[in-house]
Amino acid sequence: MRRVNRDVVYRYHSAQNRPAATVVPGETIQVETELCSGPWLRSVTDVYRPELGTGPNPCVVVAVEGAEPVQCVAVQIHEVVPEAVGYTASRPGSSAFPDWIRQREWGVVTRTVAIRDGFVEWSDALKLPVAPMVGTLGTAPAEQVFSNAWPGRYGGNMDVQEVCEGATLYLPVNVSGALLHIGDVHAIMGDGEICGGGGIECRARVTLSATLLPRPNRMVWPRIVNDTHIITVGCARPAEDAFRIATEQLIYWMADTYGMPEPEAFMLLSQVLEARVTQFVDPLYTYVAKIKRDYLPGVVPMAAL
Fold it and tell me: Is 304 contained in some domain?
């Protein structure tokens, strides 16, 4: 298995970024990801200071041989292994509560933690089981350049917990080679990412492979499949618009792939839809909408879109 190091990273999604590697569809690689704020964190004695950061979310870029804009790329995440130290932080103006007077009184608050034996060691008394996720994973936009702080139709900094081991993320291909941007792993993150400094931010090793499929006509936002659910993503402000995007995309998926009439899909989701905000802190908020695969007609393979 080929290993792609983090020697060259980019802080923006762009078609001009040069890939660190080009993979053949189906090839499994291991990507070393960089910390969301740069390489300053080395041990549990290191303390975050805003001036240390070189962010946002430096990403390793990998091209997929043969990828073209008529397609989508299916990124299968085989394993996400956090490195041994991580941190979280909050500073005024950077969270879901930008005008909260208490946060202004606190100033910059930070915590550095060990990640060991499958747990985040929050304190001597409290250990949190890791749930590693890839916070930033997207393709290059066709023409625009976006800071890695942004999520969008191309993926990017979506901060979705379901982008994790065992999941397949489907992204639109906008340029030849797709140019996957990979970074911003969290060892664990709660819904909303409310403190603004992420979950437990860390370096990591992400093992993945990518295959190519025709892009469905109505797939205009990222999609995710895991063993239990199909999941759609919407990014917007206000959060209500992100929710509507994600839910509309889920209805289209249920109709186009599973043959369910749209009115029926709409009514069924009113009974069994699972939806939530995954982050409230990026320039656009992220909502996911999901339905259990058990509720869908027929047996459709995970790769079906």
Answer: no
**Minimum mean pLDDT range among 97-101, 134-138, 294-298:** 97-101
Query: For 181-197, how does the pLDDT look when each residue is reduced to its tens digit (9 = 90+)?
Result: 999 999 999 999 988 77
Note whether residue 249 is domain-resident: yes
Q: Which of 121-125, 164-168, 279-283 has the lowest mean pLDDT?
A: 279-283
User: What is the pLDDT confidence band of residue 298, given thresholds at 50, 70 and 90?
Assistant: confident
As for how many domains the chain has, the answer is 2
Structure tokens at 140: 């290059």
Of 214, 238, 265, which closes a domain? Answer: 214
d(CA 206, CA 226): 17
**Domain extent for 257:** 223-295
Structure tokens, 109: 């608050």
**What CATH number does residue 141 fall under?**
2.60.120.580
Rounded-to-integer distance, Cα 103 and Cα 94, Å: 10
**Cα–Cα separations (whole angstroms), residue 233 to 108, 130, 169, 214, 255:** 31, 23, 10, 19, 17
Name residue, tokens 């189906």. 26
Report the predicted TM-score, pTM, of the whole model to 2 decimal places. 0.95
* Residue 10 DSSP one-character state: B
Strand 60-64 and strand 21-23: the pairing is: parallel
